[in-house]
Design brief:
Elements: E1 8-12, H1 16-27, E2 31-35, H2 39-47, E3 53-55, H3 60-65, E4 68-71, H4 75-85, E5 94-97, H5 106-112, E6 118-119, E7 121-125, E8 145-149, H6 156-169, E9 173-176, H7 179-202, H8 215-220, H9 228-237, H10 239-261, H11 265-280
Parallel strand pairs: 1-2, 1-4, 2-3, 4-5, 5-6, 8-9
Antiparallel strand pairs: 7-8
Length: 285
């Protein structure tokens, strides 16, 4: 479906991710509309030719004409929107999302969704430390990873369309995981890293340290500038998987601490060599 530029795409939630989706898809010639809370976001997006039209209201025409609807909302808001407003979606519409947790929302939405509308979940593994459509970019997804999380309720056509969407957006790696596998992976690769950055940034409040820091501290704490409302919700929504990853990290950190206490230089060097080898696998090619 996605390759047909006559199809209309609606983005619900025109922030950083929603705006970046819009920028890329508009470039391909799709008709892009948006529903979002702030009129200033709609005005900016229209002025900058990011979208064709938009509204801060539940515009029945805009919603009812959309063939593909991309939800860029907080998880609980996404669920509430579907519960309250799914009747506005056209029959045959395909919906997808950008939310960072899956198991707690995918099955819930698929269970309550009308049978003539299909939800295929996805997660763009990309972002920045800023928010808002004014900070969106049509280059943000280049070199990044895109995860589609189908269930047994998804059709092969919907899965293919969602994966093609990821490729159109510019993601270098488009893959599939089950919702459970996704949450376990994201618990480690994303949520745990934010937990570490938050902890590092708040464990020492000595004044004026910013005047003496080097790049290593800045690099390691880049994601500590965090949206507390969104990330606290994501942490709780993925509580079990994240706690498992936190415990694993604590155990490994304590191993390093024990080696330092014992001045086990060879043990520390072996851990560092393992770290170096593993890190090379994550370098973008």
């Amino acid at each position: 479906m996605i390759v047909d530029v006559s199809k209309k795409i609606l983005i619900v939630g025109l922030g950083l991710l929603g705006g970046s989706y819009a920028r890329v898809l508009k470039r391909f010639g799709f008709h892009i509309s948006a529903i979002t809370l702030d009129q200033s976001s709609i005005d900016y997006a229209i002025k900058e030719n990011i979208i064709d039209e938009g509204s801060t209201e539940l515009d029945e025409r805009i919603i009812g004409e959309a063939d593909l609807v991309i939800f860029a909302l907080y998880p609980h808001v996404f669920v509430e929107w579907i519960e309250e407003n799914q009747g506005l979606l056209k029959s045959g519409a395909l919906i997808t999302d950008v939310t960072g947790v899956k198991e707690s929302i995918v099955y819930k939405i698929q269970d309550i969704l009308r049978s003539d509308v299909e939800f295929i979940a996805a997660h763009p593994m990309a972002g920045r430390e800023v928010s808002g459509v004014e900070n969106s970019s049509d280059k943000m997804f280049i070199g990044a990873n895109y995860i589609v999380t189908p269930t047994e309720k998804n059709s092969s056509e919907a899965i293919s369309t969602c994966m093609e969407l990821g490729r159109l957006l510019g993601f270098s790696n488009v893959t599939t995981l089950t919702p459970k596998e996704h949450d376990e992976m994201v618990g480690f690769l994303s949520q745990l890293t934010h937990c570490i950055a938050i902890t590092l940034m708040t464990c020492n409040d000595k004044e004026n340290m910013e005047k003496f820091t080097g790049d290593s501290f800045r690099d390691l704490t880049r994601i500590a500038r965090i949206n507390d409302l969104m990330w606290s919700e994501l942490f709780v929504a993925n509580k079990a998987a994240l706690l498992e990853q936190m415990n694993m990290f604590i155990d490994k950190f304590n191993n390093l601490k024990t080696m330092l206490e014992a001045e086990d230089v060879e043990g520390m060097r072996e851990m560092m060599r393992h770290s170096t080898q593993r890190r090379a696998l994550f370098d973008k090619k």
